[in-house]
Structures are given as structure tokens and as C-alpha cells.
Automatic annotation (TrEMBL):
PROSITE patterns: PPIC_PPIASE_2 (PS50198). It comes from the Bacteria. The keyword Acetylation does not apply. Pfam families: Rotamase, SurA_N. InterPro entries: OMP_Chaperone_SurA (IPR050280), PPIase_dom_sf (IPR046357), PPIase_PpiC (IPR000297), SurA_N (IPR015391), Trigger_fact/SurA_dom_sf (IPR027304). Residues 214-312 form the PpiC domain. Keywords: Chaperone, Isomerase, Periplasm, Rotamase, Signal. Residues 1-44 form the signal peptide. This is Parvulin-like PPIase. GO terms for molecular function: peptidyl-prolyl cis-trans isomerase activity.
């Protein structure tokens, strides 16, 4: 684990506000996210692959069916029954998010993993209840309703959508309950015992200030824990996840269902990190060489395997030009599909000439009217919100200049005119309290993984 992973814990605490990324996929709006990453590793040297402490023979004969997933479809966890319907509904969320057909072999692996996740979720809820931590149904419903609203759906529409994909509102609400209960339990049982000294925070701040002007990275992660005994199986599982992601699967959905990092609650979003926060030369090298949109993994780290997706990068403590707030006018002309090619070509050339004759934003409306073109004005649009192909073009314009025409006769041809630009201020970076919270959250996450392992070891689990 690394201090960078602190952002993931804080992100998990903000589950109520940002959890919509997952449901956005359920609402068919997260197609652009196909990334993975996992919890950080403090050392490139992993316990995975160490000498087998059980001294097992290399060759042996299995006396019974070696594939328990065939007959262990459901489970009873400390008396709580996980039914086949529970499993089907949760798997349906992932299948819908994958955006591509899942083979029968892959489906068996997915179901086995989702069942393990349901078992962990049940253990977390039971542990919270043992500490008299109860998540009020009204709070769960409020979160569910908020997710529906953030995805432009009424509650009834969200219910119908989940049912249409073979899942249910009950299944999603159960997942919300588990995440809220676990985070609340960790704050009570773990976070209060974590201490971070001022010297540690000041040292990290000095390292960040020394790296001003270098790159920082917006990272998404999935982490799968592994032991020497199951390392090969976990690595194979991670490879399968990466394959699904490369075929268009939703990173958010896979992170929520498979990742064992706290960022699973927010779809694996680790947030903006600085390479020194990784505290691992191997990981610094890997992330530092990645390009936006690149998926890498699985990477063997301390305690398991990490899958990382780089959403974006920018310079540390330096203003990003793409954060500039722009005032734009879009001038568009449409064409008659029934007109001949010659007529449309003449109209296009007339539009291009007319645009070139404009003298600043003050003349745009008048000239556009003479060209039978439409004008749409937006005074509050961030440069990074534009299509990537247009960002550098628009940021290179002076006030009153226009982009080259783009589009087609079929869809319409348009230009963008820059009428104003407010450049961002230089970033001050995280303050003392924010960095302290990151380090605290990192240590909480380490303790949380140990806590969950203890719950598994103490649990009574029957498979059906």
C-alpha cells in the first residue's frame, strides 16, 4: 500500500456523492470507462510466489470433483443465506456493464468471484451489526434515489431498468448498505487508533513541492489480494478481468465487483496522485511511462496484483490550460440532403468565406444571419469538456478567432469562435490536513484488509 492510496479511502467516505459512477453504467452511461487498478504496493517485492510454507507435494491425485464452483452456487454465512437469486441479480449488474458477450467459461469465473464478494459483503454487514451499527433504510433509499436522479431517472425508472437487465433494486440497495456499513465500522474500530506525526506530513509536503512542474496522474485501480498458495489463480483471474476491460467492459463495474481496495466503492477511482506518493520505484516507473487512456496490468505488488488505468495526467502544482473557462460561439450551417452536390458545395464555400469575414464576436450574429447559419453561445464551458481533437485548437485561438470548419454536409458544418477565456490559477496542491488524511487513510486501508481476513477466518460458511 502507498500514501497515494489514501485518496481511495477518502473517496470511499464520499460514497454518497460519487457512487453514481457505477449506476451511470447501469444507466448505460459509463461506456467510456474501461480501466482498472488496484490497491498500491509499498514494495515491488511481493510475498506472492514465496516458498510454499505448507510443504505440499508437486504431484497428487484429486479424490473428488476439483471444481467446487459447479456445486457451490450459493452459501450460508454465519446463518445468513445467500440465495441463487441474490447471486443472479448481482451478476446481472456486472454482465450489463461488461458491454460485450461473456463466454460460458468466463461466466463461471464471474459467478464464483461475485459469490466471494457477496460473502465478504455479508461478513462486513454482520460485523457492523455486532458493533450495533445499523444503516437506516431511509439512508439507503435516499442514496438510491440520489443515484437515480444523477442519472436522469426517476426512482420508478431506475427500478424498471434494473429489473429489465435481470437485477433488482433490492440487490443494488444491499450493496449500498454493505459499503456504508463497512466504512462506518472502519471509522469506529480502526480509524480512531491511527496516528500520523507532523514530521511525516511535512516530509511528504517537501517532496511534493520539490516535484512542482512534474507530471501527476489521475489513476483508476483494481486490487486483487493474493497469497503464495493462490497467487497463480489470482493472477489468471486478473488477466481475465483485463481481457474483459480491453473488450469494452466497464472499469467502474469490474472495480466495484472485484476490487478489494477501498476505492471499489467509487469504481476504482484513486484520484490525482503524484509519483512520490507511490513510494515504490516499480510503480513509479510503470505509471510514469503510461499515456492517458492506457490500461496496464496485472502488476504483482506486495499482497497481490494491481491493474491500473491512467485516465489523465497534468503537471504538479501547475495550472492546467484545459481548466480554462471559455466563452464560445458555435456557428453552424445545415444543408438540404435533397439538393445536388454542386448546390451544397457552393453553400459550404459561401459559409467558409462568410466566417472568414467575421471581425470578432460582435459581428458573429449578423454575419451568421446572412449565411442562414445558427449561433449557439456558451459562456461557461471548460476547455477539457470539448472533444480532445478540438481542445488544443481552441486553446491556441486569440479572442475573436474561429476554428477551421469541421463536420460534414450530412450532419452540418460548424466553427467555434473564442469570445472570452479565463485561465486557471496555479494549483496550490494539497494542504497539511489533506496530506495527513491521505496517510491516515492509507493505514486504515491496511488495517481494513487485515480485519476482513480475520472475519473470513472466523466465519462459519456452508456452500450449497
Amino acid at each position: 500500500m502507498t500514501a497515494a492510496f489514501g485518496r481511495r479511502r477518502r473517496a470511499a467516505r464520499d460514497f454518497l456523492s460519487v457512487n453514481a459512477t457505477f449506476v451511470s453504467k447501469l444507466a448505460a452511461a459509463a461506456a467510456a470507462i474501461g480501466l482498472l487498478a488496484s490497491a498500491p504496493g509499498a514494495s515491488a517485492q511481493s510475498a506472492v510466489g514465496a516458498q510454499d510454507p505448507l510443504n505440499l507435494p508437486e504431484q497428487f491425485n484429486m479424490l473428488t470433483n476439483p471444481d467446487p464452483n459447479v456445486r457451490r452456487a450459493t452459501a450460508v454465512v454465519n446463518g445468513h443465506v445467500i440465495t441463487g437469486t441474490d447471486l443472479d441479480h448481482r451478476v446481472a449488474l456486472l454482465v450489463d456493464a461488461s458491454q460485450n458477450e461473456i463466454s460460458a467459461e468466463e461466466m463461471a469465473r464471474v459467478r464464483a468471484q461475485v459469490l466471494r464478494n457477496l460473502i465478504d459483503e455479508t461478513l462486513q454487514i454482520q460485523a457492523a451489526e455486532a458493533e450495533e451499527i445499523e444503516i437506516d433504510r431511509a439512508e439507503i433509499n435516499q442514496t438510491y434515489n440520489r443515484l437515480a436522479a444523477q442519472n436522469n431517472r426517476r426512482v420508478e425508472e431506475m427500478d424498471a431498468y434494473l429489473l429489465s437487465i435481470g437485477s433488482s433494486p433490492v440487490s443494488l440497495k444491499r450493496q449500498i448498505e454493505g459499503e456504508l456499513a463497512w466504512q462506518r465500522l472502519l471509522r469506529r474500530k480502526v480509524a480512531m487508533f491511527v496516528n500520523v506525526s507532523a514530521e511525516e506530513v511535512n516530509e511528504l509536503m517537501e517532496r511534493l513541492n520539490a516535484s512542482k512542474g512534474t507530471d501527476e496522474y489521475w489513476v483508476w485501480e483494481i486490487f486483487l489480494s493474493a497469497t503464495p498458495q493462490n497467487a497463480a489463480a489470482v493472477e489468471a483471474n486478473a488477466q481475465k478481468i483485463v481481457e474483459q476491460l480491453r473488450q469494452g467492459g466497464s472499469f467502474v463495474a469490474y472495480a466495484r465487483q472485484f476490487s478489494e481496495a477501498s476505492t471499489a466503492a467509487v469504481g476504482g477511482d484513486l484520484g490525482w496522485i503524484h509519483l512520490p506518493q507511490l513510494k515504490d520505484p516499480q510503480l513509479e516507473t510503470v505509471v510514469g511511462q503510461m499515456q492517458p487512456g492506457q490500461l496496464v496490468g496485472p502488476i504483482q505488488i506486495s499482497g497481490g496484483y494491481w491493474i491500473v488505468f491512467l485516465r489523465e495526467k497534468r503537471q504538479v502544482l501547475t495550472a492546467d490550460p484545459r481548466d480554462a473557462m471559455l466563452s464560445l460561439k458555435q456557428i453552424q450551417v445545415s444543408f438540404d440532403p435533397t439538393a445536388g452536390d454542386a448546390a451544397n458545395e457552393a453553400k459550404l464555400q459561401n459559409f467558409i468565406s462568410g466566417v472568414q469575414s467575421m471581425r470578432g464576436c460582435g459581428s458573429a450574429d449578423e454575419v451568421a444571419a446572412s449565411l442562414n447559419a445558427n449561433v449557439v453561445t456558451n459562456d461557461q464551458i471548460r476547455a477539457r469538456a470539448l472533444p480532445e481533437q478540438l481542445q488544443n485548437i481552441v486553446l491556441g485561438l486569440q479572442i475573436g478567432e474561429v476554428t477551421p470548419p469541421f463536420g460534414s454536409v450530412q450532419e452540418g458544418v460548424r466553427v467555434l469562435m473564442l469570445c472570452g477565456r479565463d485561465d486557471p490559477q496555479s494549483e496550490s496542491g494539497p494542504n497539511f490536513d489533506e496530506l495527513m488524511a491521505q496517510i491516515e487513510d492509507e493505514r486504515v486501508n491496511k488495517a481494513a484488509q487485515r480485519y476482513l481476513r480475520d472475519l473470513r477466518n472466523d466465519a462459519y460458511i456452508e456452500y450449497n
